[in-house]
Every structure is written in C-alpha cells, then in structure tokens.
Design brief:
GO terms for molecular function: DNA binding. This protein is α+β, with helices and mostly antiparallel strands. 40% of the residues lie in helices and 17% in strands. It has a 3-stranded antiparallel β-sheet. The longest helix is centred in the C-terminal third of the chain and has 12 residues.
Length: 70
Amino acid sequence: MLELKKQKSIMAENLPLVLTVQEVARYLRIGKSLAYELTKRKDFPALRIGRTVRVHRDAFLLWLEENLKK
C-alpha cells in the first residue's frame, strides 16, 4: 500500500505576525528567488533591516488581496 504525502496547507491565521521571505514563498507556493524579486517591488510591503527582509503579515495579506483583484 502506498502512503501519500500530506501537503501542509498554510492558513493565513496560522502565519506569524512578521514573515520571512521563505514563509512568503511557501504561502504563495513560489520559489525563494521569485519571493525575493517580489520584495524589490515598490508596492510590496517588505521591511529591510540591514540585509534582512521581513514582511508584516497583515500588510502582506492586504497586498495579496488587492493584487488578486487586478
């Protein structure tokens, strides 16, 4: 009998308040390189702290909702 891998679905309410680029990539199901490209967009809510990039969860979800309407 084959055992199927259960895919973990990330729910918005389970996201931490501040996201890493890897968490954004996992949520959007894209690669980390593409997620870093997103953080360079002027309309994307990325926060840079030195070389570190973080994304506020609520701002990210709002950005996502607004861009899904386009």
